[in-house]
Amino acid sequence: MRAPPPHRRPTAAPPPPHRRPTAAPAAHGPSPLRRGPRAAPAARAAMEAAAALNESGAAAPRLPAGGGNSSLELSSRPPAPAALNPWDVMLCVSGTAIACENALVVAIICYSPALRTPMFVLVGSLATADLLAGLGLILNFVFQYVIRSETVSLLTVGFLVASFAASVSSLLAITVDRYLSLYNALTYYSERTVLCIHTMLAGAWGVSLCLGLLPVLGWNCLHDRTSCSVVRPLTKSNVTLLSASFFLIFLIMLHLYIEICKIVCRHAHQIALQQHFLTASHYVTTKKGVSTLAIILGTFGASWLPFAIYCVVGDPDYPSVYTYATLLPATYNSMINPIIYAYRNQEIQRSMWVLFCGCFQAKVSFRSRSPSDV
């Protein structure tokens, strides 16, 4: 007999090897960077495309964090050119016209030795200020679309503020000169008057230069946008000061022109009484003088008052079209000034004939005009 086999205990099956649980694949599919027979060609193609873009000089594409089929995003893009603003173009055109007109006036006054009286010194100061304002408008356009810099912006704005302030101050000086020529007609051509005129001009240009330096020296809103005005980078307090100065100058000019009208009417009436009758020419002359003064003051007020008022009541959150719509007419004053104060003058007209024709035509009659001629 064969012996029965020895009894063996049943052994349990060996446990399966421990495996780390794997996360479920993303809903959008396997990552292109995952190694595998299928994912390798996709990852290799993406790397080759990135290398090709880098070699071509284009910006390197940035893959989304989750991979997948999301669209590529460029890590850096070249800055888009600034869109040309039609208002800026109109300001540049206005500045070009202003610069050309006033450059001619400055050239004529410098060319003619006879134009050295206090009246022409004042007209030359006005033309110089308007010439600088026109150049400032041109430079502002160039720097805005060619050289973008906060420092350049501050310098340009300060230059414009100083130029326009000098223009308005020169207008006030001309008004004072006209008043003095009528009120003190006997002593007007004395050396004291010449000294007074030069002192006024020195003070006007000094104050204008200080006003232009304020934003450059730190009175700006580059670091505090909440304090900006409708004319960036000027602060609200800065434009309020400029507007208040303009209102004061306008009121002084209004008062002086009213006094000039009274003096003109009184002188014309006295001359007519000395002739023992009032002729029709007396009324025509008086009416013409008053109308000319009204045109001068009306042009100045219509040009600058809207912008000065808007600088006070406007808010920086308002559309910029309001600022442009009030600033553009203000520049027209510098365009009209040469016509009112220079080209109407007989002495300047005669100098223009000599400058452009090279000879003086005797058949054209000119008469000398005094500052009191309005």
UniProtKB/TrEMBL annotation:
Compositional bias segments (type: Basic residues): 1-10
Keyword entries, A-Z: Cell membrane, G-protein coupled receptor, Glycoprotein, Lipoprotein, Membrane, Palmitate, Phosphoprotein, Receptor, Transducer, Transmembrane, Transmembrane helix
Any one Gene Ontology cellular component term annotated for this protein: plasma membrane
Subcellular location: Cell membrane
Domain G-protein coupled receptors family 1 profile: 101-341
Protein family (similarity comment): Belongs to the G-protein coupled receptor 1 family.
Protein name: G protein-coupled receptor 6
Species of the source: Taeniopygia guttata (Zebra finch)
